[in-house]
Description:
Strand content: 15-25%
Order of helices and strands: EEEEHHEHEHEHEHEHHHEEEHEH
Helix content: 10-25%
Radius of gyration: 25 Å
Oligomer: single chain
Mean pLDDT: 85
Amino acid sequence: MAESSGKTKTQRTGKADVKADTGAKGGKPAKTGKADTTAKTGKKAESQGKPDGLSRRRLLGTAGAVGAGGLVVGGLGGASVAEAVRKDPDPLSGVGSATVPFHGDHQAGIADPAQAHGHLVAFDLAPGADRKAAAALLRRWSATAAELAEGRAPKGDDTGIALDAGPSSLTVTFGFGRTFFDRTGLADRRPAALEPLPAFTQDALDPKRGDGDLWVQIGADDALVAFHALRLLRKQAGDAVRPRWEMSGFNRTPGATPRPMTQRNLMGQVDGTNNPKPTDPDFEEKIFVPRDHKGPDAWMAGGSYAVVRRIRMLLDTWDNLPLERQERVIGRRKSDGAPLSGGGETTPVDLEKIGPDGGLAIAGDAHIRVAAPSANRGATMLRRAFSYHDGFRDDGAPDAGLLFVAWQADPMKGFVPVQRKLDRGDGLSRFLRHEASGLFAVPGGCAEGEYVGQRLLEG
């Protein structure tokens, strides 16, 4: 497990304009400006102004005045109170109105901060479903995802699941597994980067919960909005696909901290400090397939590869470790995420620093040392994860951990070399179990009127 990403937020900027509620109920969201077409950052959206009408204290005071003044002010006071009650209050926050555009050069849900709720689901094409059926399915799914991302109810949607909510930063991301290309007669256009991941000694993988022909990632800052998208896509799939596996996760809710902060995982560790940032000069190169990519898989230009791992944390064992030992395993202070080599959370890690005891301040098997790009010939990936808890196992231990999603331009240059290093010498590995795995080719984004994967399926 590497440090996963995600910043608390209620509003984003990204490929296109990001919209946020101005506070008037029923009005259209107002644009907050444009940003880089390949990056999205989170900003807190606040409701505009104070609530309409009377405060609770003022309302009670007015009611008391009516009683004392009798018939003289009774009619006027009653009308004032009724008018205050009828007025719509300003929204409590801008979380529900925040949007992430579906259309763009890259698919949404990659460079965006991870949302509070997520679903990862894989499907297999049904027997007889061919390339044409797959194209029709992606066309339907893309149109629906675009409407949901704008907070609009798709035509024919009568579920009512998220009827009262806004888009809540909804993103829907689509990817193709290795077997998809065989079943659609497109094996000659399968990317070389989609070769199966190598086996790792720490793996205890359940094949029924890994891989798949099609992969969908759904994220939103409202649980009902996320479930609504999942439910609608499943209904629209009809008989074209069969569900293979589904995993659901969560992160900190926007607004739970007074300012945007790096997420914590279920071990209580600040997790994601050293994630590559969209502002880094080589971010595009490391995370996305080049726009001028040529060859049989030229359709992947602007796309990325997602490695998905379900990683169970041995939380009972971990919690029994003393705090000092936990911090040495990670290489960071638990309280604020600062490296044990000194400084604050974002202080560069000094892997050469010697501690007061004469040993390395960052232990030789500390997670941040073994996973560092400098220790892996610059290998980089964007970790964008969700925590999960699926109840308790037969032995009473929590079935909980991390739904790890790593994005990179080439998994053989990103995830694989880092995981090989972690597999051999990471002190944290003793407290983890990798139980499911998948690798998916995620095409670039699409323009309005197009659908994700069109260059592959119609090229």
